[in-house]
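Comment thread on ticket #2218

A.B. wrote:
> Attaching the input chain for the structure job we discussed in standup.
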Amino acid sequence: MPLGRHGWARRHPANAGPRKPTPGPPPRRAPTQRPPTTHERPTEQTAHQDECLDFRPPRYIVIHVRRDMARPRVTGPSPPQEVVTMPESSVAEPTKLTFDAPVTELHVRIVNGTVNVVGTDEGPARLEVSEIEGPPLRVTEKNGTLTVAYDDLPWKGFLKWLDRKGWRRSAVVSLAVPARSRVEVGVVGAGAMVSGIRGPAAVKGVAGDTTLVALSGPVRADTVTGNVEAQSVTGDLRFASVSGDLTVVDGSGSSVRADSVSGSMIVDLDPDGPTDVRLTSVSGEIAIRLPEPADADVEANTASGAISNAFDDLRIEGQWGTHKLTGRLGAGSGKLRATTVSGSIALLRRPAGEDEPGPRDGSGETAGTTDKKVL
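C.D. wrote:
> Ran it. Output below, let me know if you need it in another format.
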């Protein structure tokens, strides 16, 4: 088709290129809708959306608090209180406990302080803790066995318990139990007294002294450095120690056996019948006193120590080094054996009727003193 003048040029200029689109406002994006979760309620887009409630799950902080109902909170020292015990309780303050269930066996283990056990035929078993410092004592009663001890202080391997951190505790404990009960007492740095028990009794001590009074059942005492004193013990006595001393006063049991490394032994016997006495020490001294008249077959030995004897029927052999004392007193029904390596041995005689008031001579001394022969 013919074009007029400048017709093509008007439509297609020489420098004209493709026309650019006129920029306009960016397209509006549709608002994103988040699907509601199981714990949210769907909301509508309104002009008052900011005023809608927030149904997101709330957040809480929970603090767990353990409370021991057996240990009431106190602000100061309180006097001991009488409490009927449960099968298990924790004692952290002065307390008195009474046990209605029958008790046939007692286990006590404490560190520092004092423990006193008394056998009685009246009333139920009773416990009094008059002083306590450090961790609480665990008190349990199960199947007739009453236990008063720390959780970290077992009876097995007791003499090896030397944890110095655990020594920062103390308790003063007194117990009254049926006299026929079986008693086990363990002390670390604490004193112990056991009296009036007719059942078997066992005491273990690391560094505490022990006193045994009027025990008629078999008795066993093991210590490391603690001393043991037995008064009027009529049951069989067993003693073992490293450096602790043994003192027996008015012993009338049928058997006394003691072993020590460096501890001394003083045994005063007043038996009702034949007695089997066996004493052994490495460097400790041994002294034995027998009643007059005595009934025993005697043999005593020392490697380098001295021997003294107050009985005419016994003879001492050896002039230098080893000394030996042998002989028979009375019918020789009982046995007396004493052995030490470097310690001395003394055999003393108790005159008849010594415990009764006797005539005195002009010097004011009681007549009938004990004579000794020393070698």
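A.B. wrote:
> Thanks. Noting for the ticket: The longest helix spans residues 7-11.
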